[in-house]
Amino acid sequence: MSAGMHHADGVVALSNYVFPNDLHVHWSLMIVLYPYITGIVAGAFIVSSLYHVFGVKELKPISRYSLIFALAFLCCATWPLLLHLGHPERAFNMFLTPNPTSAMAGFGYIYTAYLILLVHEILFIYRPTMVGLWQQSRGIMRGLYAFLSFYNDNLSRESLALDHKIINFLAGIGIPMACVLHGYVGFIFGGIKANPLWATPLMPVIFLLSACVSGIAGIVLTYILIKKVTGSTIDVTCIRTSLKFLWGFFILDFVFEMLEVFTHFYMSTHHWHVLENLLWGPLYTTYWTLQVKIFSVIPFILLGILCLFKFKDRIILFFAPIVSLMILMQVLLMRWNVVIGGQLMSNSTRGQVFFHPEWGGREGIIAALIVMSAPFVILFILSRIFPLWISEETPQET
Amino acid sequence: MEEIKKEIARDRRAFIKKVLGGTIAGSLLLVIPMPASSFRHIAEQIPGMRDETDVFTTRQFAFVVDITACIGCGSCCVADKAEYNVPDGNYRTWVERYIIDDHDGVYVDSPNGGLDGYTKAREGLPHPTRDTFFVPKLCNMCEKPSCTQVCPVGATYKTDDGFILVDGTRCVGCSYCIQACPYSVRFINPETRTAEKCTWCYHRVRKGLLPACVTVCPTHARKFGDLSDKNSEVWKILHEPHVVSVLKPDMGNQPALHYVGLRREVV
Predict the structure, then answer these.
(1) Which of the residues B91, B108, B151 would you substitute to probe the A interface, choosing the one with the greatest number of A C-beta atoms within 10 Å?
(2) Which of these, A104, A280, A269, A80, lies nearest to A189 by C-alpha position?
(3) Distance from CA of B106 to the nearest CA of A (A)
(4) pTM for this one?
(5) How far apart are CA B146 and CA B162, in angstroms?
(6) What single DSSP character describes residue A287?
């Protein structure tokens, strides 16, 4: 038996052929983080829009926090890209001399437009708060708050009504823009016909749905953590509603992810032969074991139970962070399996390579950890300027 | 006897004079710069190319690889590496060895890109070999290239005469073109941190010379020429009855690199 298996392994090793230029994985950890971070941004914005546009009142406690959370991550969205580029000093050329047929050339514009929109959305939502803080504070902070409230302390009913109109308008165009931001990231991969794992029209859809999922999960997890650390009360109704949305988006996300693989399997074109060798080869552990079995099926069932049955607040507050963390892991693994996985099969269609990330270097694990912790540092700094929770606000707030 | 000695001494003197003269003349050749037109002494290998004055020529170039002729010596790879100083582990061109056994098993390898030549038979194959052949690979110079489509800054572009080139001074090193190329002919040069690939020796072609790999191929398996010239060998191959195909035709890239005797096993 073992001799037979040994023989089979030997034949596999003999028939494994990778094009000589395919031995190197060019898009590594940083390109895994890039769609992960932009996904969290898009998802967090959608949480805020659920309250601001779709009127889901239960999400009010996290509606502002999710915007600041999105901004903190958006500030770092370009970092992994700059770390990855061979010539980051030329990155600005994508703005100045963009190639109109390149999917990647659009990122700078979409990113900038979205950053401008998000900042304005935040400033208009926070304007009454900023005015209050402007009047209370002294020194540099006074100047900062004056600047952030557009040097306008008019809080009359008409003025606030106008603000409200602007907020609704910005949130309204913000939803399609958040979808474009992340659907587009999916298209960067989905438009590569040379890669059978990436080249599917479902790719933008899957990226978008997983973005929503990771955004909601990130908000729920950090909301509970921040509240626990600061010792303030948690709005459990808000958590329950968030979990329902999380479950809803995750159903769509997970089902589409599985349908994509199943469709390839069912059609069984020559592409499937390549994908099969990948999914049951170098990607088996990170895809089937980790992404699907552990971090998809378990949170899927847990979320279902948490949403369908009535539990005590204590139970919800115990499981919500666990489920959210698992979902965040699922999305990170999904990014890994798409980005890295797609490069582990050679264009020769006859072989695979294995990838082990390095610790050091511009694209190593340590750099990745720094990039992933930076949004939390920025979030902390932003929280010193923008009160994250409505209860902390001045009485002027309506 | 004395006379003979004198004769020898005179000859020796004359010999030393000639050696000295030759050395000085040779040294002067090193010091005096070569005139720019001196390459004209090298015979023009692509007829009429040196009369072209425009930036881009009106020609339509094609590359033909004859799989039935390649012997896997690796000379083309050596010439390419020397021409471009290609860093180890990256390949502008490479040669693959295909072995098909009598159970229809296909075994492909390309150790060091075929740079060292295939001097030893492959060992450990489970069944007797039915057929074996070599397939040289290089840039396909697609009519509809994926790499130029995805390059965010237009650093890789298509010239009017059909060459796909990379401007190393504009490339940002994002590797998107490497992901997009169905033929894996691109790589990031670790020294310049920019994308690189085979150019069909554009700098030589513009001077009327054939690509380096074509020049050194001992079996004439690599052919290069102008399709607008009906007397060219490539025109004849592509317009007369031959078994000719391109790689991955269903990708829709329409390569200008053609293969004579291409087998279905070749990807």
Answers:
(1) B108
(2) A104
(3) 7
(4) 0.90
(5) 14
(6) I
Instruction: Tell me, yes or no, whether B11 and B120 share the same domain.
Output: no
Range of the domain at B181: 41-267
- Answer yes or no: do B101 and B156 share one domain: yes
Mark whether B12 and B105 lie in a shared domain: no
B172: domain CATH number is 3.30.70.20
Q: Mean pLDDT score of chain B, rounded to an integer?
A: 93
User: At B199, phi and psi to the nearest 5?
Assistant: -115, 10
Total domains present in chain B: 2
Taking residue A201's Cβ as centre, other Cβ atoms within 10 Å add up to 11
Residue B25 sits in the same domain as residue B66: no
For chain A, how many residues are written? Answer: 398
Q: For B78-100, write each residue's pLDDT tens digit.
A: 999 999 999 999 999 999 999 99
Q: From CA A148, how far away is CA A151, in angstroms rounded? A: 7
B contact test, residue of A6, A26, A30 with most B CBs within 10 A: A26
Could you tell me if B28 and B63 lie in one domain? no
What does the angle CA B256 – CA B260 – CA B264 come to, to the nearest 5 degrees? Answer: 95
Residues B130 and B23 in one domain: no
Q: A155 CB near a chain B CB, below 8 Å?
A: no
Contact A15 B106 (CB under 8 A): yes
Q: What is the pLDDT of residues A27-79, one digit of tens each?
A: 999 999 999 999 999 999 999 999 999 999 999 999 999 999 999 999 999 99
Residue B172: which of A17, A85, A101 has the nearest Cβ? A85
Q: Does residue A101 belong to the interface with chain B, where contact is any CB pair within 8 Å?
A: yes
Which has the closest alpha carbon to B80: B69, B96, B91, B70? B91
Q: Is there a single domain that holds both residue B22 and residue B103?
A: no
